[in-house]
Each structure stands twice: as C-alpha cells, then as structure tokens.
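User: I'll paste a sequence; please echo it back and then give the predicted structure.

Assistant: Echoing your sequence first, then the prediction.
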Amino acid sequence: MSRFLVPLAKFGVILVVAAVISFAVAMGVAMLGHGVLVRAYGEDLQLIDDTPPMFLAAACAYLAGIVAGFLVLLIGWRRFVRGTR
C-alpha cells in the first residue's frame, strides 16, 4: 500500500510547488510587461487595451507561467518520484 502512497504524496507536493512557482513566474513577467508598457505608452494604458502590445504582454505572462510550471513538474517527477538524477 505504501508503495503507491509515497510516490502519490510526492507527486502531490510537486503539483503544489509547480502551481506556486507557475503563479510567481506569471506574476513576475506580468509586472515586467506592465512596466515596459508604462514606459512605452505612459500611465494611461486604457489607450492600448485590446491591441497587439497588450495582448503580447498578457500572452507572454501566461506562457512563462505555463512553461515554468511544466518544467517544475518534469524536473520534480524525475528527481523526487522516480529517483533519477
């Protein structure tokens, strides 16, 4: 029984860590994108709502979060669940 529970518990911990890191990376990239947009277009970003620069900034934040979460899952699975280095 514990042969299956231990890897399952490790995987649960890795999922939580991946979610937290994914969120942190996405927020960091979103803050960076916001800073770039404010420098380029000024404080009033409503002027560029629904335009390619705003879409690109949001898409980059989502993509960075997804990639970071996937990498944490992949590395965590290989190191902690399967035990390979």
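The mean pLDDT is 90. The two ends are 25 Å apart (CA to CA).
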